[in-house]
Specification:
Shape: globular
Number of strands: 5
CATH superfamily: OmpA-like domain
Radius of gyration: 18 Å
Helix content: 40-55%
Number of helices: 9
Largest sheet: 5 strands, mixed
Number of domains: 1
CATH architecture: 2-Layer Sandwich
Strand order of the largest sheet: 1-2-5-3-4
CATH topology: 60s Ribosomal Protein L30, Chain: A
């Protein structure tokens, strides 16, 4: 990522959020008490934003800003800790914490296309079906108040048009399998989007060379729904 223009406040926020050993619960409280709409918008707009590109933060939820208070942030962070732990038990899934457009904790789950699909194909392989069934059973069908975005990405080999179509078909294949076979509610999945070989999302190694295998992937984001935020604000979120 390149050519960020950070304010002093932005730098301070990112230092807080990346502190070693901080759990989602702790960070949720920091975010919830840190300035409402201004902080939520700031953090959301910085996620994955590169020069000349739309903010990657727009992938993850709709900002509600000041509606999220300190106590609500703590409750949402605790809930996301649980969802993350459940996702970490899924075979072939790489799991990490990110922030949504409200500055609240979200969960990012990455499935390598080498596991999901054959090269140039969008048909789910048997191993992928097994992993997605586990993901649906243990995560999505348990944490039903998490909204979900599914995003497909491609490497830079092949034409732009082909890769854009392929990444969209792969994102849709994951969505359709989760909703059609695994019993996930279609209303829980808010978007299914292919990003092709957009340079903003390509993955490079330490030498600056693209890791094409890593660039070919599907990412699934779990983030707080409006219902979860409302329950957290009411103090009833479990």
């Amino acid at each position: 990522m390149k050519n960020f223009k950070f304010t002093a406040v932005a730098l301070a926020v990112l230092v807080i959020l990346s502190g070693c050993g901080a759990t989602n619960t702790t960070k949720g409280g920091l975010i919830g008490g840190g300035g409402g709409a201004a902080l939520g918008a700031l953090v959301g707009n910085l996620i994955g934003k590169g020069a000349g590109h739309e903010s990657r933060g727009t992938i993850i939820g709709t900002a509600v800003g000041a509606a999220v208070g300190t106590g609500a942030g703590l409750l949402i962070g605790k809930k996301m800790d649980k969802a993350k732990a459940a996702a970490e038990a899924v075979a072939n899934a790489q799991v990490e914490s990110v922030q949504d457009n409200n500055g609240l904790e979200a969960v990012k789950v990455t499935f390598d296309n080498g596991i999901l699909f054959q090269v140039g194909k969008s048909n789910l392989q048997a191993g992928a079906q097994s992993s997605l069934k586990q993901f649906a059973q243990n995560v999505l069908n348990v944490y039903t108040d998490c909204d979900v975005s599914i995003n497909g990405f491609a490497s830079s080999d092949g034409s732009d048009a082909t890769n854009l179509t392929l990444s969209q078909n792969r994102a849709d294949a994951v969505k359709n399998y989760l909703t059609g076979t695994c019993g996930v509610s279609s209303s829980q999945i808010k978007s299914s989007t292919g990003y092709g070989e957009d340079p903003q999302y390509l993955i490079y190694d330490a030498n600056g060379k693209e890791n094409m295998a890593a660039s070919r992937r599907v990412e699934v984001y779990l983030y707080a729904s409006k219902a979860m935020i409302d329950a957290a604000n009411a103090g009833t979120l479990q």
